[in-house]
Amino acid sequence: MSDEAPRRPRRLRVDAAENRARLLSAAKDEFSERGANSSLNMVAKRAGVGPGTLYRHFPSLHTLLVAVVSNDVDILCRRGRELLDSENPDTALRRWLRAFATHAATMHGLLAVQMASEFALGGTLAGQHQAIIETGDALLDRAKRTGTTPQHIDIRDILRTANALAWASQQAPDDSDLLDRLLEISFPEPR
Amino acid sequence: MSDEAPRRPRRLRVDAAENRARLLSAAKDEFSERGANSSLNMVAKRAGVGPGTLYRHFPSLHTLLVAVVSNDVDILCRRGRELLDSENPDTALRRWLRAFATHAATMHGLLAVQMASEFALGGTLAGQHQAIIETGDALLDRAKRTGTTPQHIDIRDILRTANALAWASQQAPDDSDLLDRLLEISFPEPR
Q1: Distance from CA of B160 to the nearest CA of A (A)
Q2: Contact (CB<8Å) B164/A158
Q3: Does B160 touch chain A (CB under 8 A)?
Q4: Residue B45, exposed/middle/buried by CB under 10 A (0-12, 13-18, 19+)?
Q5: pTM of the model
Q6: Among all residues of chain B, which has the CA nearest to that of A189?
Q7: B190 close to B148: Cβ distance less than 8 angstroms
């Protein structure tokens, strides 16, 4: 750092972090909406940056996909930990399952991108999968102990359910609040 | 008919009806378990009849598929009408949704047979679809009026949910009671 402009490098780092976050969010939208038809140029355009900035952050489609998945799982698991502190354990579990279903819908879109690009995301997804199961299990455990959620329910089965609802909602892509309605049937908010 | 054996034709008709029912049940099992790999010879073998008997009842794969679908939908709708007379309207709806999910799983298997055989079952399925929606709607309506099922729930959305759970259960074909567990999460039996 120079004596003259101590704030400039910091400003640059902040810009870079903002661009990276914007690119990840734009990539997530592009991949989940357009699946196998996604384009990297569209990702840059959605993020409001030039293609050069995109390639500086993510030199290949693979690095971008891995970053999108990791970022989405990080956000999902952070949300789960926050919900562990919320008041009603049953509601906390349901809210998190809704977040998971949205995540699952995004992942179905990413899977289409991955298959079109012919490289395997499997290894990356397996590690993330474990983090999700652990987060969900902590919420489920609390909902069983201090809420009204039945003891026999398994975390893998409720994740399968949320994933199936995400799949169903993608069979009717024009029905934009279908996933919300389906989640409300299987995991109703208390009234 | 001859004067000599008035009971024989009747006995023959009873045998024919029994063979037909056995063939339909065997075909349903074969199609749902083996999908695109189904074989008509295996259907005859499962039913315990010769291939000639199968072809006399169902001269083509198409007539057999249509008969299996129609028969399954008839049974499903009859079960729905019976449940309209049962005591608890919420439980009646849930029980019927479980029957529907099993039906949907069978239909996914049939779809694979249909795609492998390259003819369209679409027209047949559309008519049956309407019968299912009407049956489900009658049960849902009663559960809303005299049970505790929320007013905002739509029959198409709960059928989509049950169908999605059938899809999920077929992603893990070795887990034979997965569909039951998933149905118990989305449509729990009252305890």
Answers
A1: 7
A2: no
A3: yes
A4: middle
A5: 0.77
A6: B150
A7: no
Task: Identify the top-confidence range among A37-51, A94-108, B32-46.
Answer: A37-51
Q: Which residues of B touch A144 (CB under 8 A)?
A: none
B47-70: average pLDDT: 91
Using CB atoms and an 8 Å cut-off, which of residues 116-155 of chain A contact chain B? 150, 152-154
Nearest CA in chain A to B151: A185
ipTM: 0.74
Average pLDDT of the residues of chain A: 85
Tokens 């996933």 — which residue? A179
Which of B153, B171, B178 lies nearest to residue A185, judging by beta carbons?
A: B153
3-state secondary structure chain B: CCCCCCHHHHHHHHHHHHHHHHHHHHHHHHHHHHHHHCCHHHHHHHHCCCHHHHHHHCCCHHHHHHHHHHHHHHHHHHHHHHHCCCCCHHHHHHHHHHHHHHHHHHHHHHHHHHHHHCCCCHHHHHHHHHHHHHHHHHHHHHHHHHCCCCCCCCHHHHHHHHHHHHHHHHCCCCCCCHHHHHHHHHCCCCC
pLDDT in tens, A149-163: 889 999 999 999 999
List of chain A residues whose C-beta atoms are within 8 Å of the C-beta of residue B181: 154, 157
